[in-house]
Amino acid sequence: MSANSLGRLLLSALVALVLTVLPLPSWADLVRPQFLVLAVLYWSVNAPRTGGIAFGFFAGLMLDIFQGPVLGEHALALSLAAYIFVREHQRIRSKPMFQQALIVFAALVAYEVVLFAIDGWTGHPVTSLLRWIHTVTGALIWPVAAAILAYGAGRRA
Amino acid sequence: MAAFGTGASRPLQRGGSGFRFTVYAVLSVVCMYFDQRGHYLEQVRYVLQGAAYPIQLAVSSPPAAWRWLKESFQTREALQAENSRLRNAQRDLELRAMRYEALAHENGELRGLAGALPPVADRWLAAEIVTVQVNGLRQRLLLNRGQTNGVFKGQAVLDDKGLIGQTVHVGPWSAEVILITDPEHAVPVRIERTGLRTIAVGAGDTTSLALPYLPGNADIKSGDLLVTSGLGGVFPEGYPVARVTSVNRDAITPLAQVKAAPLAHLDTDSEVMLVWFRADHPAAPATPVLSGKGNALGELSSGDPAMQPQVAKHAAPPAPAALVPAAAGTSAPAGAQPAPQSPPAAPVPAAPKPEAAPGQTP
User: Fold this and answer.
1) What Cα–Cα distance (Å) separates residue A85 from each residue in A33, A75, A78, B78, B210?
2) Predicted complex ipTM
3) pLDDT reported for residue A77
């Protein structure tokens, strides 16, 4: 069971990573949700023992390779988001989908705040408001993403 | 996978997850500190970038396959038309290059040199663009050439019309390029008509650069050509960058608002050039080498000759020290000394400057 769910987790991470680096036109690139972050959040809530903080950390390290100015930036932000979701996983899991999306929105904002702060501290300030778009689109797509992942896991959403 | 299974052995309690979060948070902060402060993690990044390359390659393969398919099903007429167009273009270029030798020699004599200087571009290597990320926040390319091809961090990238950008992260088989229009990028430029130096900053879309540091009374007008000024240690002097498109002088702001359009086809290119420059050339980037390891062309692994840099025909002076592994990201001219733009006592190319490249002998 554990090895099986670990396999599913890694598969979903790979798919999310591909969706993250898929080249898109400029406007679509800006509204693209952070799929890997959503996957980390999903597994933190639904399989907190398999996924969770370590998964968040390594997924963040991959994101750092693709789009981070310093190694460890996304890793820190994503372990924080995963930690919140692991800690509150029972409460979040029992919420209806709409409220879950709101919680995801809050987590994505926290994630982006961490990135924003580190960007500023390391001397790569990107102050454009465009960077916050993905928090909204991520929350909007959360019900769909969660349903797909739950279907893949053979569980009811 | 012990890393993922740490929580499985014991009951998941609040203390447990908090402890693990603390460990990973500290680990991230240590990572960031060493990556930012000492660049100690270059090796880690190098390995991870190598691991990430197959994913990027796979993701970019459908568009690449589509392009290949389109090319292989072109009609005979289209190919003939393209062929004749290319032949015309080549004839034009040859006519233009005809006087080049004579002019270069004359220029050398005017500068008080014995003969013509070799071109500043020593070697070049064509690279294909694997993936493109272009949005208002980030403008990056991924090229299919890496350290195995001799690519180094902070290398200039050009296309046939002008400057594209520079490499920021180099993996074993791939290199990430920051475009000159990335909001984080700044390139030191000179207005070709007046010689005025300033900095062109990326504005976040591929069609415009901003020149935010020009006073309101600066002599600049729409249509002026901007060329690299040679400051900053990455780009050599005199390469075309952009053309000024609008100059807005506002009475209430002390600075002029100037926009320029890049000359390179940043959004339509599928192939770009990585360029090596002679460090001892007067037009070479001004800031000298900090340190170099494993970048010498002599250490290049041989292999497919098409994957290796071509050497310029004018290989008169021995100049393997032309590699300039300048500190990447230092596109701003902080601490850069003025470029020797027209010095009568320009260094003779046969005698490399002592500070050119430590440890590299021609």
Assistant:
1) 18, 15, 11, 58, 42
2) 0.85
3) 93
Instruction: For chain A, report the end-to-end CA distance as a whole number of angstroms.
Output: 19
With a CB-CB cutoff of 8 Å, which residues 195-254 of chain B face chain A?
A: 204-205
Which pLDDT belongs to residue B137?
81
Domain-wise residue ranges, chain A: 2-152
- Domains of chain B, by residue range, sit at 99-335
Is A127 near chain B, with CB under 8 Å? no
Q: What token pair was written down for A131?
A: 């960077």
The Cα B287–Cα B357 span in angstroms is: 11
Spatial CA neighbour of B187 closest among B269, B130, B263: B263
**What's residue A129's pLDDT?**
85
> Is residue B361's pLDDT more than 90?
no
**Which amino acid would we find at residue A67?**
Q
CATH of B99-335, one of 2.60.120.40, 3.40.50.11420, 2.40.10.350, 1.10.10.10: 2.40.10.350
pTM: 0.73
Report angle CA A30, A144, A3 to the nearest 5 degrees. Answer: 105
Distance (Å, rounded) from C-alpha B231 to C-alpha B298?
A: 28
| Closest chain B residue to the Cα of A65, Cα to Cα | B49
Does A135 contact chain B (CB < 8 Å)?
no
Q: Is A9 on the interface with B (CB under 8 A)?
A: yes
